[in-house]
């Protein structure tokens, strides 16, 4: 059974209470359940994680890279939050491991502040999804099943 890593960056632990007009009312626990259901549809195991710390996200991408090298990884769904727009470290980790990765954003970042329009992750992601709300997580897992 292959594994899907769903990695969530800073402030995503505040889903449901942080700017519900932008991010919706669903909590991170709701997103975890949605991802469990999507993985079950495709026979994937799930590693669902959240950290406010950039280095922790890098370590998890390295872990996913080891599983990828062993043929045990279906892919990574990464909502890096604000680190999308600032983290060369995440870029280098993704590049260095070669993990198949979907960059995900709950909101349409291109309809928001201009600093959110640039992503360090997009150049090394196989796909980018934004603006589908938390439903995007399930859609991203569905997409991984097609690869």
Q: What would you say this structure looks like, in words?
A:
- It is a single chain.
- This protein has 147 residues and is α/β, with parallel strands linked by helices.
- It has a single domain (3-146), classed as Rossmann fold (3-Layer(aba) Sandwich), CATH 3.40.50.9100.
- The protein is built from 5 helices and 5 strands, in the order βααβαβαββα.
- The chain has helices at 20-23, 28-42, 54-69, 88-97, 135-146, and strands at 3-8, 45-50, 73-79, 101-105, 127-130.
- It has a 5-stranded parallel β-sheet, with helices on both faces.
- The mean pLDDT is 93.
Task: Summarize the helices and strands and which ones pair or pack.
Layout: E1 3-8, H1 20-23, H2 28-42, E2 45-50, H3 54-69, E3 73-79, H4 88-97, E4 101-105, E5 127-130, H5 135-146
Parallel strand pairs: 1-2, 1-3, 3-4, 4-5
Structure at a glance:
This protein has 5 helices and 5 strands.
| CATH superfamily membership | Dehydroquinase, class II
Oligomer: single chain
The span between the termini is 15 Å
SS element count, helices: 5
Q: Under the CATH scheme, which architecture would be assigned?
A: 3-Layer(aba) Sandwich
Helical content class: 25-40%
CATH level 1 name: Alpha Beta
How much beta, percentage-wise?
Answer: 15-25%
Arithmetic mean of pLDDT: 93
The tally of structural domains comes to 1
The name CATH uses for the topology is: Rossmann fold
Helix-strand pattern, N to C? Answer: EHHEHEHEEH
Instruction: Please mark out the parts with pLDDT under 50 across 5 or more consecutive residues, or reply none.
Output: none
User: What would you call the shape?
Assistant: globular
Placed side by side, the strands forming the largest sheet appear as: 2-1-3-4-5
Compute the CA-based radius of gyration: 14 Å
Number of strands: 5
Report the sheet with the most strands, covering strand number, pairing sense and barrel closure: 5 strands, parallel
Helix and strand composition category:
alpha/beta
């Amino acid at each position: 059974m292959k594994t899907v890593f769903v990695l969530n960056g800073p402030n995503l632990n505040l889903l449901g209470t942080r700017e519900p007009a932008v991010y919706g009312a669903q909590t991170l626990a709701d997103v975890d359940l949605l991802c469990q259901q999507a993985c079950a549809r495709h026979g994937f195991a799930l590693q669902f994680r959240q950290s406010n710390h950039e280095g922790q996200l890098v370590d998890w991408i390295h872990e996913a890279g080891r599983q990828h090298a062993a043929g045990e990884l279906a892919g990574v769904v990464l909502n890096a939050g604000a680190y999308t727009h600032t983290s060369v470290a995440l870029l280098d980790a993704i590049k260095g491991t070669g993990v198949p990765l979907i960059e995900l954003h709950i909101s349409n970042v291109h309809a928001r502040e201009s600093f959110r329009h640039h992503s360090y992750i997009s150049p090394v992601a196989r796909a980018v999804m934004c603006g589908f709300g938390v439903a995007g997580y399930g859609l991203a897992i569905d997409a991984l099943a097609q690869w």
